[in-house]
Amino acid sequence: MLFKKWLLVLLALLLTQTNFAQNKTIVNSPNKKISLGFWLGDKGQPMYEVNFQSKPVMLASSLGLDLKQTLNLIVYPTLSNNLSILSIDETSSNTTWKPVWGDVNEIRDNYNKLTVKLTQKNANPIVYNIVFKVFDDGVGFRYEFPEQSTIQHFIVSDESTQFHLTGNHKAFWIPGDYDSNEFSPVVSNLNEVDAEDPKYGANIYGHQFIDKNAVQTPLMLKTAEGLYINIHEAALVNYPAMNLMIDKSNYTLTSTLVPDALGNKAYLQTPAKTPWRTIIVSDKATDILASHTILNLNDPSVIKDPSWIKPTKYVGIWWEMHVGKSTWDYAGSQNATNFDANNLKPTGKHGATTANVKRYIDFASKNGFDGVLVEGWNVGWEDWFGQFKENVFDFVTPYPDFDVKGLQKYAASKKVKLIMHHETSGSVTNYERQMDTAFRFMKKFGYDAVKTGYVGHIIPRGEHHDGQWMVNHYVRVAQKTASYKIMLDAHEPVRPTGLSRTYPNWLASEAARGMEFNAWSDGNKPRHETIFPFTRFMGGPMDYTPGIFQLELNYWNKDKKETIHTTLAKQLALYVTICSPLQMAADMPEIYEKKMDAFQFIKDVAVDWDDSKYLEAEPGEYITEARKAKGTNNWFVGAITNENSRTAIVNLNFLDAGKKYNATIYADAADAHYEKNPAAYKITKQVVDSKMILSLALAPGGGCAISITPIK
C-alpha cells in the first residue's frame, strides 16, 4: 500500500514537471503594460521573454550559470540545461518607502513576483531558484542558491544570461572593460559596435578591452519602433560586474563576468544570490529617467539613524591642479626617482597649503557651501602613479605646509566642514590595513566625508576594479565609513547598482568620464551629459563636478585652443539634470567672483529633492527636468542639449495652481555657442504660474537653468 502511494506521488510529480516544461508561465506588471514569460526549452534550459504592451522587448532568451566545486575542482554540469522544475510560486507586493535623500521623497515598490525552483537531472543535483520581479516599468531577475545537501561552496566559472533583442537597435555604449568606465559614450547601431576602433576613444590607463563586441552596462537602447530599453544590474554584492557580449548575427547579448587572477568569476557559499539583472522599458524616454526599479531591487538601509547623513554642496582644491595652476605633490615630480618623505623640497606650486585652504574655506562660508575638498594634502604624491608600490600613502601624514590642527579650528569657526581625500593608488591591501587608522584620524580632526580614489592597477595584482574582490572592498568601505558616521564619495570604483539605498552614506561615485577630462584630453562631447542620465546614472548618483565658468582653456595654457564643450548656462543646468546629493562648484573662487550674478544659481540650487518632473528627453539629444527642493516650495529647472541648438519646452503645470512665482532664468545669450562663445549668457526675471508654458532657446552645446520661488 505504501509503495503504491509513493508511486502515485512520483507519477504526479513527473506529470507536474512535464506540464511545467510544456507550458509558459506568464506574469504581468501591476499596470498590465509589461509581461514576462518563463518556460523550459526542449533541452531543459530555462527561458524567458519580455513584452511591452504586447510588443516584444526580449525574444526567447536562455538563462543559466556554470559551476565547479571549490575543494576538488569537480566541474558540475551546467545550470543552463537538463533541468526540471520543482515548483513555481507567484506573489505580489505593493509598498512605499522613504529614501534618506534622492529625487523624490517617497518611492513606490510595486511588483508581481515569480519564483521558479529548479534542479538538475543528475546524481548530484543542485537546487536553485530563478526569481523574477515584474514592475510597471521593467523586470528584474536573479539566481538564488539555498543551502544544499551536496555542495556548500562553489565557483561560478561563467554566467550565460541572455538578452535576445528584436533587432539592430540604436545603442548608447562604452567598451567592455574590467577596470575603467571612463570612456566617451558611443552612439551607433548594435552591428556597428567595435570597442577596438580608435575613433571611440583612448584605452584608459592601458586597460585591455574584453572583446571588440563587448559593452558595459548600463546599456541604453532604442528600437526602430520607438521603444526605449535599458539593461543593467542591481544590488551588486559579492559578485563581479557584468559586461555584455553582442552576437551580431541575431542581436543576442550574453553576460560576461569580470574574472579574478585565476580566471574564475565568483566564489560563493550557500545560501547565496547573484545581483539582479534589470530591464527597464517604455515608449517614453522620460520614463527611463524616472525609474526607481534598480533602487527597489536593493535592500533597505542598514543605517537605522541616518540623521548624520547630509547631502552636500562643496568647493575645493581640485580643478586648479587639473588645469595646471597648482600640483597635488609638494616636492614635484623631479623628486620621484629619489623620493625621500623626510627630505621634501617644495616647488612653490603645491595646491593644498594652509593659506590656500583657508581661502577656499572663506569662500565656502561666505556663499553658504557645506564643505571644502582638499586633494594633495598628504605625503606620497611624488611617488604614486603606476608604480605598483604597496605603501605609497599612509592617510595620516600631512605635507609640511598643511596645518591639520589649525585648519580644523579655522573651518569650525567658519561653520564649514573639510572633506578628506584618500587616493589609494590602487594599493587596496594597504588601504584595507589602514582604514580604521585613517577614519579615526578623520574624526579626530573634524572630517565627516571622504573621497576615495583607485587610480591605477589594483594591488593585489591580478584583481580588477570591477571584479568580485574589489566589489566586496567597496562595500566594506561603505560599511566601515558608516560605522564611523562618515559619508563616502568613491572615485574609480565599479559602476553603481543602487547600493546607495542600502548604504545611504555612500552619497556618490565617479565610475564614468567626468568633468576632469575636459582639462587635459579631447574633452567630453556636447552630447555627453544628455546620454549619462540614461546610462551611468541609472545605478546611482555621480560626482560629476559641474560648474566650470572659465570655459576657454587657453586662459590656463596658451597652447590649448579648446573650450570645455558646453556653454556657461549649460554648466548651471547640470545641477538639475545631474541628480546627486553631492555637488561640487568645481571652478576656483577667483573665477566665480567675476560672474557672481550667474554663480547665484549654484548658491541657490538644492542637492536634495521632494519631487522631480522629467519633462522631455531624448538620449544623446536633450533633457529638460524640474525638481522641487526638499522641505520647500522652491523649484529648479534644467534644460540641456547636444551640439545642436533647439527650443526646450517647459510646461509649468507642476506648480501649485492659483499661486504666483518669481522665476529667474539663466539662459544662453543669442550669440552663445559651445565653441565660439561659450561664456555668453543672460539673466532675466518674470512672474510665472502653473498655466504657463516657457519656451527656452538653447544654443549649440547649451542649456538653461531656472530657479522658481513662491511670491509671498
Explain briefly what this protein structure is:
The chain is an alpha+beta fold and 712 residues long. Among the domains are: 2-296, Beta-galactosidase, Chain A, domain 5 (Distorted Sandwich); 545-712, Aldolase class I (TIM Barrel).
Task: Give the SSE map.
Layout: H1 2-22, E1 25-28, E2 34-40, E3 46-52, E4 55-62, E5 65-69, E6 83-97, E7 107-120, E8 127-135, E9 138-145, E10 153-159, E11 162-164, E12 170-173, E13 186-189, E14 214-216, E15 219-222, E16 228-234, E17 242-247, E18 252-257, E19 266-269, E20 272-273, E21 276-282, H2 285-290, H3 293-296, E22 312-317, H4 319-322, H5 354-367, E23 371-374, H6 404-413, E24 417-423, H7 428-444, E25 449-453, H8 468-483, E26 487-490, E27 506-509, H9 517-520, H10 528-531, H11 568-577, E28 582-584, H12 589-592, H13 596-604, E29 609-618, E30 622-629, E31 635-641, E32 646-651, E33 661-668, E34 681-688, E35 693-698, E36 703-710
Describe the structure.
Helices cover 17% and strands 32% of the residues. Helix 5 packs parallel to helix 6 (404-413). The radius of gyration is 26 Å and the shape is globular. A hairpin with a 2-residue loop joins strand 8 and strand 9. Among the domains are: 2-296, Beta-galactosidase, Chain A, domain 5 (Distorted Sandwich), CATH 2.70.98; 545-712, Aldolase class I (TIM Barrel), CATH 3.20.20.70. With 712 residues, it is of the alpha+beta class. Strands 6, 7, 8, 9, 12, 13, 15, 16, 20 and 21 form a ten-stranded antiparallel sheet that branches. A seven-stranded parallel sheet has the order 27-26-25-24-23-22-28.
